[in-house]
Amino acid sequence: MKKFGTAIILAGGKSSRMGFDKQFLKINNKRLIDMMIEKLKKEFEEIIIVTNKPKEYRGYGQKILTDIIKNAGPLAGIYTGLKEAKFEYAFVIACDMPNIDIDYINYMKEIIDKYKVDVCITKVNGNIEPFHGFYSKKITESIREHLETEKRDIKSLVKKLNTYYIEEKLVKRYSPSLDIFKNLNTKKDLEHFNEKLGGKSSC
Ligand SMILES: Nc1nc2c(ncn2[C@@H]2O[C@H](COP(=O)(O)OP(=O)(O)OP(=O)(O)O)[C@@H](O)[C@H]2O)c(=O)[nH]1
Questions:
Q1: What fold is seen in the domain 4-202?
Q2: In whole angstroms, what is the distance from residue 96 CA to residue 23 CA?
Q3: Where is the MobA-like NTP transferase domain (predicted)?
């Protein structure tokens, strides 16, 4: 099957709720981000990691970037990734999301191919899930302008763009418990994740 274009992994956050840098989180002694790369590599032509610790990725075969606009949150990571992406669309995911569902990514990609929108994301309970979505390279400048207005949230940006919102009932066909949007923000999140998988996490 034909591979998708670019996947961007955001790994430049503060991890203040977790208390240690989430991009180095290990599950059963293996870095979660490495497991994500392995999975995404099979499906995407290009993987970009936008990180605040580029030295830690020495020797990686992926494109390793740092934020062009500093201290501006995840949207700035998307900005840098899109700017350097080789392909027209990029799938964006956070470095702390262990449940990647390729079938759902495929479904999103079909929407992109059909409607050629700027952004394709899911709405759950009225809220958007920005770190499991597709973004067009075309919106790079819109992101920069949005960040200049001091507004850094993705929600108000995508409202201004041609955005396709996938409904909750549709994503539930792929991920009934909506696990694909689960990210590990706190030590409690880790505990729950470990209990579920019988795994062991460490930093
Ligand atoms: N490149 C880049 N990624 C970011 C930035 N801020 C957050 N992220 C990433 O965006 C995703 C979601 O971030 P959050 O978990 O909400 O924020 P965080 O700063 O990592 O964690 P908290 O300090 O606990 O809020 C994670 O993958 C982060 O690594 C940033 O300024 N630049």
A1: Spore Coat Polysaccharide Biosynthesis Protein SpsA; Chain A (3.90.550)
A2: 7
A3: 7-161
Q: Which residue has the tokens 């990571």?
A: 77
Full strand arrangement of the beta sheet holding 26-27: 30-31, 26-27, 201-202
Longest dimension (CA), the chain: 45
For atom 14 of ligand 1, the residue with the nearest CA is 13
pLDDT at 41 over 80: yes
> Residues near ligand 1 with C-beta < 6 Å?
10-18, 22, 50, 67, 72-74, 76-77, 94-96, 185
SS3 27: strand
Atom of ligand 1 lying closest to residue 50 CA: 1
Helix 140-148 × helix 74-84 angle, to 10° = 150
pLDDT of residue 15 exceeding 80, the answer is yes
Q: What's the gap in Å between 185 CA and the centre of ligand 1?
A: 10
Query: Could you state, in order of their start, the residue ranges of all structural domains in the chain?
Result: 4-202
Residue 198 has pLDDT above 70, yes or no: no
pLDDT tens by residue, 108-132: 999 999 999 999 999 999 999 999 9
pLDDT digits (tens, 9 = 90+) for 135-161: 999 999 999 999 998 778 999 999 999
| Distance from the alpha carbon of residue 52 to the mean position of ligand 1, in angstroms | 10
Predicted structure pTM score: 0.96
